[in-house]
């Protein structure tokens, strides 16, 4: 093993974590919504950048994690006669960069690859780690079910994926993706994927690879094919995407099937029960130190469960998703934790997903059983305002007052009116989207607002959808 350069070493008082603790105090004023003053939003997102600063982190004597080489992390465990790779990034280009960085610390052959789940940013670069010797590749029995079976809506999911991650934003517009850098090598997606050769049974697996004792535990959460990896001797835990430094993405706005929130909370609780000395997330920096790592996992599990419980109580009290999305909040003792700031996931989005996942689309209010079609509703809104011109003036007034959400909603009414200035409605919507984006510290929201505004401005979207 060569030591040509030193890896990043993280402790409980790391620079990134310390700065985020300070920023968290500011974030606490944002309530359940993720809108703050533009300067604050940008400062928070810039601070979050440190969570995926490119480099190799030494987690334990024989454990190394490559952060920032793409959106996700990849890790190397050094054994007696070989190494084990945990997740393999997005494609061969990013994976090759990480593999070369790892080779500064060990030149032993890869004996095994473990996929924590089947999202493409964790499995697409496996070929870059493989030499002449074909390694065993471990995954769960349900591997491949991460995105469900919604192939029929793949076209729109792709478009929304591009917006959520800001893949087409200019450098001036880009900040980051909440738990990942904005600029990543994406043109070789999945080209290095190697299929699993060893299936992890539903009750888990204990084995030894390259002299390293390994436990693999089934842990549904962000995906139902997820597993976490535990090194009992080193007391290092690889969490996959069930944990990272942000409130979790219990629902992704690109469009996902229901993610079982209770399963997710329980899986993270099982991780916390192991009292790891270090936890390696699927994204963002590892957390070292037993107290710091264990507390983070306990808090994470509690936060997910709290959002679920509050939502269920509200549902059973007869409240609908729109009301609950504004009422449910993280408990006071958790809201300022740096690993629970809503950089990636969002509490309001989670609430809506839980409601829909448990009850479907109907909110129980008979008014919403058969609502007016959009054009007819717009006409009645216009009549209520005193005519199309008056409604248009209200839309412009909302924009002038920087009441951006209301401006958006009014623009969506004005666009349906045959006698309205639809070009003006489009312009107002673009400006309102950019106004909201400037105030967002939730990266998917920010990226989506900006991406949609650009599509409107360039004419990519039809009259129907703007």
UniProtKB/TrEMBL annotation:
The keyword Signal applies. Its EC number is 3.1.2.6. The keyword Signal applies. Pfam families: Alkyl_sulf_dimr (PF14863), Lactamase_B (PF00753). Keywords: Hydrolase, Signal. SUPFAM superfamilies: Metallo-hydrolase/oxidoreductase (SSF56281). Residues 71-283 form the Metallo-beta-lactamase domain. Residues 170-197 are annotated as: Disordered. Residues 1-32 form the signal peptide. GO terms for molecular function: hydroxyacylglutathione hydrolase activity. This is Hydroxyacylglutathione hydrolase. It comes from Stieleria magnilauensis.
């Amino acid at each position: 093993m060569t030591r040509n350069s030193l890896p990043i070493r993280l402790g409980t008082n790391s620079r990134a974590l310390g700065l985020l603790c300070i920023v968290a105090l500011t974030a606490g004023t944002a309530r359940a919504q993720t809108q703050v003053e533009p300067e604050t939003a940008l400062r928070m997102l810039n601070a979050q950048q440190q969570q995926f600063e490119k480099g190799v982190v030494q987690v334990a004597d024989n454990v190394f994690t490559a952060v920032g080489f793409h959106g996700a992390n990849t890790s190397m465990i050094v054994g007696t006669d070989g190494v084990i790779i945990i997740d393999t990034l997005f494609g061969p280009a990013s994976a090759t960069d990480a593999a070369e960085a790892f080779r500064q610390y060990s030149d032993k052959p890869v004996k095994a690859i473990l996929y924590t789940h089947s999202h493409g940013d964790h499995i697409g670069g496996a070929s870059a780690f493989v030499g002449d010797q074909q390694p065993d590749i471990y995954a769960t029995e349900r591997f491949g079910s991460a995105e469900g079976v919604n192939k029929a809506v793949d076209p729109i999911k792709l478009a929304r994926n591009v917006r959520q991650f800001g893949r087409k934003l200019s450098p001036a517009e880009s900040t980051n993706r909440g738990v990942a850098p904005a600029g990543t090598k994406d043109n070789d997606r999945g080209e290095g994927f190697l299929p699993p050769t060893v299936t992890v049974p539903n009750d888990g697996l204990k084995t030894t690879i390259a002299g390293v004792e390994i436990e693999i535990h089934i842990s549904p959460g962000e995906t139902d094919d997820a597993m976490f990896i535990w090194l009992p001797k080193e007391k290092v835990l690889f969490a996959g995407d069930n944990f990272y430094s942000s409130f979790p993405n219990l629902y992704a706005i690109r469009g996902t099937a229901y993610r079982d929130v209770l399963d997710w909370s329980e899986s993270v609780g099982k991780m916390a029960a192991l009292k790891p000395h270090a936890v390696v997330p699927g994204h963002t920096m590892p957390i070292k130190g037993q107290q710091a790592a264990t507390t983070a996992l306990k808090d994470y599990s509690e936060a997910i469960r709290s959002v679920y419980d509050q939502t269920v109580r509200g549902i059973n009290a007869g409240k609908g998703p729109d009301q609950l999305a504004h009422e449910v909040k993280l408990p006071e003792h958790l809201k300022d934790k740096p690993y629970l700031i809503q950089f990636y996931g969002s509490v309001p989005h989670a609430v809506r997903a839980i409601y829909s996942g448990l009850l479907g689309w109907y909110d129980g209010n008979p008014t919403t059983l058969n609502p007016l079609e959009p054009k007819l509703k717009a006409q009645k809104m216009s009549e209520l305002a005193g005519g199309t011109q008056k409604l248009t003036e209200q839309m412009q007034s909302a924009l002038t007052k920087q009441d951006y959400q209301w401006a958006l909603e009014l623009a969506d009414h004005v666009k349906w009116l045959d006698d309205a200035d639809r070009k003006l409605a489009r312009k107002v919507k673009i400006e309102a989207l950019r106004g909201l984006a400037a105030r967002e510290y939730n990266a998917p929201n920010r990226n989506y607002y900006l991406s949609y505004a650009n599509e409107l401005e360039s004419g990519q979207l039809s009259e129907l959808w703007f």
